């Protein structure tokens, strides 16, 4: 199935009325002239405005009237008031500028869709801290770190944009996100269908919850990535865990590991589980950014980094 057909299928699934009349914005998204050699680097990097919107800390309760400033970015170079659209990035767990500069798809399609790009920062990340520097110092403050509150933030921000930007009121909004942000984009379409005409949820593990998906599925996918990258790759990693255990049983083995891995301080036997967790996270991150093009998302990496490793 081609990329255009896949986009149309996805968007029509997310828009219940699409079998009757596919909205122009969704039709345009499904027939984009996408680049044959995609890149993670945006065509117009950093060409955006940094803005703030006052949000309620609690959208659903009555015990606090406290507010905070949510940061969001707007790029409107290609936006047209007539026939345009709004692509709304549902920010995930990190600084929104980081995601903005590594979400090439939105920048690639902005001109063709005559789109305004909006990147909304998730509460408790970047500069969008409901309790400022104390946001993580009191566990009671974390009561408001939920996906429900984040989705309500996005809804309020979209209402603000449509109310205050001339020409935006009747423009279709499409939610876009990846990973956890993709989950948010899909949930946003489900919970606020009157606010977005569709959602594009990339690499979004929307079923990854206890009792829905077996816990080991994610690591099986990671293992498959390494297995496909070359002969004996995944098996070599599997054998490395036992090799680390064996070496860590002796002082000379710990010293060898410290030197071979260029560690900052000498390893002790108590450090071994932390070391293995750190190495495991490295393999997981490589699998997640095993893109067919060079990327700077987590670190400067070549195309297909697993094969290059």
From TrEMBL:
Cross-referenced SUPFAM superfamilies: alpha/beta-Hydrolases
Keyword Lipid biosynthesis: no
GO molecular function terms listed in the Swiss-Prot or TrEMBL record: serine-type exopeptidase activity
UniProt keyword terms in alphabetical order: Glycoprotein, Hydrolase, Protease, Signal
Signal peptide: 1-21
Domain of life: Eukaryota
A GO BP entry: proteolysis
Similarity comment: Belongs to the peptidase S28 family.
Protein name per UniProt: PRCP isoform 6
């Amino acid at each position: 199935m081609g990329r255009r057909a896949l986009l149309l299928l996805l968007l029509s699934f997310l828009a219940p009325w699409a079998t009757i009349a596919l909205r122009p914005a969704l039709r345009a998204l499904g027939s984009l002239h996408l680049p044959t050699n995609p890149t993670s680097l945006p065509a117009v990097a950093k060409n955006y405005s940094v803005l703030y919107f006052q949000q309620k800390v609690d959208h659903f309760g009555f015990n606090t009237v406290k507010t905070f400033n949510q940061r969001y970015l707007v790029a409107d170079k290609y936006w047209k008031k007539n026939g345009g659209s709004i692509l709304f990035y549902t920010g995930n767990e990190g600084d929104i500028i980081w995601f903005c500069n590594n979400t090439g798809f939105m920048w690639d399609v902005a001109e063709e869709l005559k789109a305004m790009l909006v990147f909304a920062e998730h509460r408790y990340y970047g500069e969008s801290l409901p309790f400022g520097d104390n946001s993580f110092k009191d566990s009671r403050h974390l009561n408001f770190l939920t996906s429900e509150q984040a989705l309500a933030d996005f809804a309020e921000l979209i209402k603000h944009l449509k109310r205050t930007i001339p020409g935006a009121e009747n423009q279709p909004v499409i939610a876009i996100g990846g990973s956890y942000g993709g989950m948010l984009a899909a949930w946003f379409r489900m919970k606020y269908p009157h606010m977005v005409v569709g959602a594009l949820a990339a690499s979004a593990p929307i079923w990854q919850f206890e009792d829905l998906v077996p816990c080991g599925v994610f690591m099986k996918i990671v293992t498959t990535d390494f297995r496909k990258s070359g002969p004996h790759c995944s098996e070599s990693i599997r054998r490395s865990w036992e090799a680390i255990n064996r070496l860590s049983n002796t002082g000379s083995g710990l010293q060898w590991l410290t030197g071979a891995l260029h560690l900052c301080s000498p390893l002790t036997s108590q450090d071994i589980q932390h070391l293995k967790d750190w190495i495991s996270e490295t393999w997981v991150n490589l699998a997640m950014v095993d893109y067919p093009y060079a990327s700077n998302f987590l670190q400067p990496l070549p195309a297909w980094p697993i094969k290059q490793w």
